[in-house]
Design goal:
The chain is of the alpha/beta class. About 25% of the residues lie in helices and about 20% in strands. It has helices at about 75-85, 105-115, 165-170, 185-200, 205-210, 215-230, 265-270, 275, 290-300, 335-345, 350-365, and strands at about 5-15, 15-25, 30-35, 45-50, 55, 60-65, 90-95, 120-125, 125, 145-150, 175-180, 235, 260-265, 305-310, 385, 390-395, 410-415, 415-420, 425-430, 430-435.
């Protein structure tokens, strides 16, 4: 079995950063060594990290790869290549595709598609609707990452707005419920108001007033109440407001039944950025005030926000034309999520150890992913080597997402992803993706 030594690296793992080396044997991590230690057996290959940081591969619990049915925007192949380039070794894909992942047949088709195409590891959410709750009992809890629930707002016909169905889903899911929380009644009222004032398609700057903080809070509060009443395992997706944080407990992850995710867009941008980036940063929930962004950043360090994800949602640029109502919502961020968070670490928003906790350890622990998310002997060798002080600029030439654009175009990062390993295989090195690599289906320990 091939053995690879990754030497002279700073290993960021389990809350510490220390110099050392890692031995990969086949698909797994065989040894984690201090500088004074040598491998127990000879290695076939040695990679000199020359002082780079070695992290567990990022696990993104919230992506939209658009496959099947919307593959003019993105597909499993293109977006998994972008993931590898960004140090993301595992993803969990959302169900609002065409067809929607709301039947067992559609779910199985996605797994089969990923096995053929994905360069990194994968799992898929099952989408809850007003009519498919009986299928929840048939889901394989060791294979399906969770149930996606659109509470109050949906981009398709996946809105679950019947209280009896909501209670059934919360009471009987048996899987983590990942909820998109925006109140549709409030959004509809705001839409009418701003259309009366500014016409059929108000400027994008009104997007955070239409999809308002109150709409988010009202829906999140309902989700939290139902979780308390039923004992459900609730994970609130893309928290975007300071007020929603009041619904959450500041506690270690292992003590929680209700957890929360923050996305890169809400941690990085504010409503002031609409003036320069326009609809390129239009997403649902909307990007809101600087005070909201700063509260979310603080929540990364006080125990209220558990996971950092992307809500990676590619669209063609022509789909982004228009204003607050006509332009589609969503942006591609997967390739740049890790380097963006490392930039925030350089700015003192959080530490590099906390970046690893929120992007690697916590997703693995929260969803019960088996043998991933940490640099430990016996774990799958999902690793990313990143180097500080290596400036590079985002351009159309280095964007791997199929849509071909990013809100980060023109931005210069000081951190660079040099190598990404998936199940011990080097899938990415400095701009080159090994297209022979295929990821594996994630497995979950929920017995």
């Amino acid at each position: 079995m091939n053995r690879t030594l990754i030497d002279h690296v700073r290993i960021v793992n389990d809350g510490t950063t220390r110099e050392g080396s890692v031995v990969i044997e086949g698909e797994q991590i065989a040894e984690v060594l201090a500088p004074s230690e040598t491998p127990v057996q000879p290695c076939d290959t040695t990679i000199d990290g020359n002082g780079a940081c070695l992290l567990p591969g990022v696990i993104d619990d919230h992506v939209h790869f658009r496959d099947p049915g919307l593959t003019q925007k993105a597909d499993m192949e293109s977006e998994s290549r972008a993931a590898a380039a960004g140090g993301v070794t595992s993803f969990m894909d959302m169900p609002n595709t065409v067809p929607q992942t709301t039947t067992l047949e559609a779910l199985e088709a996605k797994f089969a598609d990923a096995a053929r195409q994905s360069r990194v590891n994968y799992s898929f959410y099952f989408g809850a609707t007003n009519t498919n709750a009986p299928l929840l009992h048939e889901l394989d809890k060791n294979r399906v990452c969770g149930v996606k629930l659109f509470m109050g707002s949906s981009t398709g016909n996946m809105l679950v707005d019947r209280m009896d169905v909501l209670r059934t889903i919360f009471a009987e899911s048996g899987l983590p419920i990942v909820a998109h929380c925006e109140d549709q009644t409030i959004i509809a009222e705001n839409t009418r108001h701003y259309k009366d004032l500014y016409g059929d398609d108000p400027d994008v700057k009104f997007h955070p007033l239409i999809r308002s903080a109150e709409a988010c809070y009202r829906s999140s509060a309902l989700a939290v109440r139902l979780a308390h009443e039923t004992g459900a395992r609730l994970h609130i997706a893309h928290i975007s407001t300071a007020r929603e944080l009041k619904l959450l407990e500041a506690a270690p992850l292992e003590q929680k039944r209700i957890t929360a995710e923050a996305c890169i867009a809400h941690l990085y941008f504010t409503e002031n950025d609409y003036a320069t980036l326009g609809t390129r940063i239009k997403c649902n929930p909307s990007i809101k005030t600087a005070a909201d962004r700063d509260a979310l950043r603080h929540a990364l360090t006080n125990g209220k926000i558990d996971v950092i994800a992307t809500d990676h949602a590619p669209h063609l640029l022509k789909d982004k034309e228009g204003g607050a109502l006509k332009a589609t919502s969503g942006m591609p961020m997967l390739q740049f999520s890790l380097v963006t968070m490392l930039e925030l670490a350089d700015q003192g928003v959080l530490t590099i150890e906390q970046v690893v906790e929120k992007m690697c350890h916590a997703p693995a622990s929260l969803f019960g992913i088996e043998r991933r998310g940490y640099i430990r002997p016996g774990y799958q060798a999902d690793l990313v080597m990143v180097r500080p002080d290596s400036p590079w600029t985002v351009s159309r030439d280095n964007i791997l997402s199929k849509c071909g654009w990013s809100p980060m175009e023109g931005h210069t990062y000081s951190w660079q992803v040099e190598r990404t390993f998936v199940n011990g295989h080097q899938v990415y090195e400095l701009g080159r993706v090994d297209d022979s690599c295929r990821g594996q289906a994630l497995t979950f320990n929920r017995n």
